[in-house]
Amino acid sequence: MDPIRNPYAPGAGQRPPELAGRDEQLRAFDIALERVARGRPERSVVLTGMRGVGKTVLLNALRSQAVRAKWGTGKFEARPDQGIRRPLGAALHMAVRELGHPDANTVLGTIKAFIEREAKPGAKLSEKWNPGIMVPATKGRADSGDIEIDLVELFTDVGGLAQDQGVGIAVFIDEMQDLRPEDVSALCAAVHELSQQRLPLIIVGAGLPHLPAVLSASKSYSERLFRYNRIDRLDRQAAELALTLPAEDEEAEFEPEALAAMYELTGGYPYFIQAYGKVVWDMAPASPITVDDVQVATPQAESELAVGFFGSRFERATPAERDYLRAMAEASSGDDDADQVLTSKVAEVLDRKAQSLSPARDALMKKGLIYATERGKVAFTVPHFGRYLRNQQG
């Protein structure tokens, strides 16, 4: 098969595998956009799921829908070491520019004031971050230094601008679980105020499975602010469509046995479908793609995943954290797709007291490699990670 025409290469093809089976979420968001623009009550949106299920691709697709609806949009990826002012301010700056409102200078001044408040009072000009907004910062608006007050004022001004234009603003936040606790609290308070005022500004966040717990721990009323969508692996039918539709665009096809083998290998996870699909396409001599083609390509696909998907994450862990990960893999039942491991069992494998392993466990959670499914239980955020670790040990 021609590698140049490979529809599974990242960014290639007309139909990304990650969007197969996501029609329900796409339709629901179109309805939400229309409701918000008309001043009807509607909650912001949170997408949750393990790594590899296509949350970021879906987030980008939702943003494209908002752009087509003539909304202003902005996006950023949360980082544990960064506050919310700069990335959110930059995202809103982009959103306001997209609106093209002729009287946007006042709101841009509010955004600039919000961003510049990150610098401490009396900071030198060289220590301040220049957001690229060519209007003076608005004094006395979104610059109090209290992030909750400032965020409410910022969203009120930006949402009011969109309301005047009869459209909306959507802010897309990837890796939302990495927001700092004080920023999560302020964000929830601001979204609550928006809902009270019926202003057309919504947050669309994506994060790991424990994101709802992060939000509820911040504000008890968070479940009323967000519509949660659990993004999971694809069922057999959707997974086959994720393979066959891109192939059809290139006038190729899979034999049924090859599709069955691909589902067994990928578990229905979109990232794996794309990764295996790319290698199988490159190595298959001709269409239709057979089960033998899949078997020949499997070692190379697994090798690439071991380096780029699993290995890159494992390398981020310290030696103590790697011991914890290996113990989790050993303590699991082998069902990496939905396995929960008792922390006491991990301690037993390592012959340590559970309390002594808390630093390693907490660090792995902060790095997004594991999450707490409930009290006393943890799970991998990465599908098939346990299998990868067991194979490495073997």
Overview of this protein structure:
By secondary structure, the protein is α/β, with parallel strands linked by helices. Helix content is 51%, strand content 10%. It has helices at residues 23-37, 55-68, 85-99, 105-116, 147-165, 181-197, 211-218, 236-249, 256-266, 270-283, 291-314, 319-331, 343-350, 358-366, 385-393; strands at residues 44-48, 72-77, 169-174, 201-207, 226-230, 341-342, 370-374, 377-380. The chain has a five-stranded parallel sheet with strand order 2-3-4-1-5. A three-stranded antiparallel sheet has the order 6-8-7. α9 crosses α10. The longest helix has 24 residues, at 291-314. The radius of gyration is 23 Å and the shape is globular. 44% of the residues are buried.
What does the secondary structure layout of this molecule look like, with pairings?
Layout: H1 23-37, E1 44-48, H2 55-68, E2 72-77, H3 85-99, H4 105-116, H5 147-165, E3 169-174, H6 181-197, E4 201-207, H7 211-218, E5 226-230, H8 236-249, H9 256-266, H10 270-283, H11 291-314, H12 319-331, E6 341-342, H13 343-350, H14 358-366, E7 370-374, E8 377-380, H15 385-393
Parallel strand pairs: 1-4, 1-5, 2-3, 3-4
Antiparallel strand pairs: 6-8, 7-8
Helix pairs in contact: 1-2, 3-4, 3-5, 4-5, 5-6, 9-10, 9-11, 10-11, 12-13, 12-15
In short:
The chain is of the alpha/beta class and 394 residues long. The protein has 15 helices and eight strands. The strands form two sheets. Strands 2-3-4-1-5 form a five-stranded parallel β-sheet. A three-stranded antiparallel β-sheet has the order 6-8-7.
